[in-house]
Amino acid sequence: MDNETTRFGHVGGPRMWAIAILAVTLVGAGVLRFGGQQAAGPGAPAAAPAAISAEKAALAALAPGDRPDGCIQPDRRIQLYAVELPKEGTQIRLGYGLTPETASYPGPLIEMIEGECLAITLHNQVPEATLAALRQDPNLPLGVSLHTHGVKYTPTSDGTIHTDSWVPPGGQRTYIWFAKPRNPSTGAQGTAGYWWYHDHMVGTSHGTRGLSSGLFGGLVVRRQGDVRPDRTYVTVFGDLQSINLRRGAATDTCDPVNPVPGPTCLIAKKGERVEFLVVGMGNDMHTFHLHGHSWADTRTGMLDGTNKALVDSVPVIDNKTLGPGDSFGVQVVAGDSVGAGNWMLHCHMQFHSDQGMATMLHVLNPDGTLAPHSADHAPVSAAGAPAAHAGHQGSGT
Ligand SMILES: [Cu+2]
């Protein structure tokens, strides 16, 4: 009861019901239990009492100017931890997590609904020595940050060095994001869309080493009435021909008998609505191509209805270009008219896919197993991490 009061206490009327319904929908659809990644949606577990006290103290320190217009009070609060993960070979790996123990790359999927104001308290648990090892500019202080795309925030939530909105080792800071709603009467744009968040401090003043080490994740803002997916997978296309910082066989670690969904095991039951949140990170252009499935080139990948002029104005595609910093989302129905099987998902720049920028969407057999397939991805280094490639620069890994 106290948790409910804490989480929904500032939300009134219809919005409270919308969030409550959304939470039920999330759990019912299995997004939280069986999603592509651990999700931080409106139905995510509440924080422990001690953490809530810390959050309240942090929020009390915020000035009114720390909140964007329209955000009176945060509707919801989450904790986010930046930690160091086990190295992959010699590569330093960092991750964000809703708890230190669950940190990963990509970090947790953060879900918002238009109209919602979210407070995120970032805890920097990355050792100072690790940040020093990643630092490329000796004049830069050591810290991590949280910078996001798409939603509204004031400069104090920008997550950049020039706004002094970063977190030193052992510190914490609360960022406020507002999913400004579309105004249907004026047509003013909202913030519904597929976005991403990332560090902007590690290595350089643009967070270049933070990104290439793993400090990034997906953010989806939904609009009231959006069709909800059964599961969401974040696929981040990066340098060194990597998907989620892995390539080749390392992008697909599914156990053939008992596959567990995650960033390196993209699975779905036939007929499930699968959402991909696709991000371009690093310095290269990529394309997102999925075999056996196609989608409408709209905000969500879907286009329903019988308005012929509208329907004919939107192309159906199965390949979409992705530049650095771009993000988009699509929803497809797994195995629709094509059935169970192993459907390649890859970058269609040929030298990228040849060098391992490829994985699979496994549409499961009715018994939950994977259809037989060879692990025929391009070779990777012995550690399973992306091998160094002399032709690329910039990301440092
Ligand atoms: Cu590519």
TrEMBL record:
SUPFAM superfamilies with a match to the protein in the record: Cupredoxins (SSF49503)
Keyword annotations: Copper, Membrane, Metal-binding, Oxidoreductase, Transmembrane, Transmembrane helix
Transmembrane portions of the chain: 16-35
Region (Disordered): 372-397
One annotated GO molecular function: oxidoreductase activity
UniProt biased composition (Low complexity): 377-397
Domain Plastocyanin-like: 104-224, 261-364
Pfam families hit by this protein: Cu-oxidase_2, Cu-oxidase_3
PANTHER family: FI03373P-RELATED, MULTI-COPPER OXIDASE
Full protein name: Multicopper oxidase
Organism of this sequence: Asanoa hainanensis
